[in-house]
Amino acid sequence: MKKEDIDGVIHFAASFQVGESMKNPLKYYSNNLCGTEVLLESMVAHGIDKIVFSSTAATYGEPESIPILETDRTLPTNCYGETKLSMEKMFKWTSKAHNLRFVSLRYFNACGAHPNGKIGEIVPFS
Length: 126
Description:
- With 126 residues, this protein is α/β, with parallel strands linked by helices.
- The protein contains three helices and three strands.
- The protein has a three-stranded parallel sheet with strand order 1-2-3, with helices on one face.
- Strand 2, helix 3 (79-98) and strand 3 (101-105) form a beta-alpha-beta unit.
- Helix 2 (25-45) packs parallel to helix 3 (79-98).
- The mean pLDDT is 91.
């Protein structure tokens, strides 16, 4: 960040598999939360005050109504969604302290896995 003239950050980096997050939650806390903390510390230190964040609709948990509204209650049901919501809260509090401007994009994974099973997360049907 010292070498480049950066106006803002687009944050799409995170561990993202729901099933894995339930088996290895510490990986998700370490990568998603601690990594975001390091990024925010560097942004503040270098005066970068804008970030676009790739969040997830998993922050809502089980929807109380369809369609899900941005203003609906957030209650994640897995570690992945919990870490993403915690990351959003880091942005909120950093915004209050350091005038960070942020937007969180909450969307569903519309793709799933490739039919050959080589990429993406395959969720077995029960």
